[in-house]
Prior knowledge:
Distance between the termini: 79 Å
Helix content: 25-40%
Mean pLDDT: 80
Number of strands: 11
Number of helices: 11
Oligomer: single chain
Amino acid sequence: MSISLSSLILLPIWISMAQIQQGGPDEKEKTTALKDLLSRIDLDELMKKDEPPLDFPDTLEGFEYAFNEKGQLRHIKTGEPFVFNYREDLHRWNQKRYEALGEIITKYVYELLEKDCNLKKISIPVDATESEPKSFIFMSEDALTNPQKLMVLIHGSGVVRAGQWARRLIINEDLDSGTQIPFIKRAMDEGYGVIVLNPNENYIEVEKPKIPVQSSSDSSDEPAEKRERKDKVSKETKKRRDFYEKYRNPQREKEMMQLYIRENGSPEEHAVYVWDHFIAQSAAEKVFFVAHSYGGLAFVELVYNLMTPVSVYVVKCSATTEPATYPSPHP
Length: 331
């Protein structure tokens, strides 16, 4: 016989167990009863009831959303804006669904940069081997050959990627509000070369390899009875921990590890790399930067560490422009 309990009462049971275990011998009977109850809980059934599978579509059509002629994300059937609380009282599931949609939005914006803005996707590091982690930036055809002016766009921190200012605005407002596309199109219309940085693409994630755990009894000189007792305690502790982890995160994702991209492991490193390998090689007489949020800090760090003095124009997102000269501290 299996017992299904709601998550609202499961946690208090754990708390009660902890309190009982701190009591005296008279509480042993209650502890035994609670342990017996917990041993009969069907965790799989419980979690299945509390949270649907974290299995989401990988296309906008699969989510039943599309961008209309105004660049607004709308439901294909109802015409309504995106709804975050798709499932009531399932915040984690709703958040995972939102993140899955966000990944699709990122790829969609990449496509717009190439198709609508005619930008080229350039892989970095430029000398990367076939097997090492890579990132990329976007450039116009004349980014390095335009003799007059070059515009460089840098977004802020977080989940945004090349071509985006804010994912939330793309989803809840429109493409013009949340992407860099209006800036790019106007810059190209006015004769600028364009480079779009991708400072948050610092690493790739791969599944962490499983390392076999060697039993402590294999290499210990302790008496057999003591080893058995320690192994029993260890197994019980692991069982309780696994039980709690499965309750806390029933659909636990695979354990991942991060492999950082060479010379692009942070927004600051990325800005320096793109400067050294692209911007500094351009023919442009003047370079204009459009930076948002943390992108501005990456830009300031870049200018501060340049080996030669430069003059740049800082273009604010408010569409006002003010010239500013940042001499390098280096001779």
